[in-house]
Amino acid sequence: MDLENAQVQMRKGILEFCILHIISRGEVYASEMLEELNAAKILVVEGTLYPLLTRLKNSGLLDYKWVESSSGPPRKYYVLTDTGRLFLDNLNLTWQELAQSVQTIVSHTEEIKSKQNS
Predict the structure, then answer these.
(1) What is the mean pLDDT of each successive set of 10 residues along the chain, which is 118 residues long?
(2) CB of 15 within 8 A of CB of 33?
(3) Distance (Å, whole) CA 114 – CA 112
């Protein structure tokens, strides 16, 4: 198995969750999302982000509004809908349960390795 591919797949699995979190803070422009995701080492390109944003909008989880820009064309700012906030709340619960489950397994593995090395 290719390590890099496995790492990319893990990041892709949480991309939607991270995007919804960024948008939950208030109106946000797509390039701001890209900057934050890339700064967090969740490497995303526009060709991945825009179709995902469209899918989330079509699912009723987010909406957008156009805002005039003094430095170019109007910008599309995204916001969560009420449905999107509820969806994110549920994802947060799932994330907490999943993170706890993974930590339990990793900790147990480390305990066993420690005992084997003693």
Answers:
(1) 83 90 96 94 89 96 93 92 97 95 92 84
(2) no
(3) 5
Contact between residue 102 and residue 34 where contact means Cβ atoms under 8 Å apart: no
Which pLDDT score is estimated for 81? 98
Pairing of strands 28-29, 62-69: unpaired
Q: Is 71 exposed, middle or buried (0-12, 13-18, 19+ CB in 10 A)?
A: exposed
Nearest in space to 43 (alpha carbons), one of 3, 12, 1, 5: 12
Distance CA 71, CA 64 (A): 20
Give residue 52's identity as a one-letter amino acid code. Answer: L
Full set of structural domains in the chain with CATH: 3-116 (1.10.10.10)
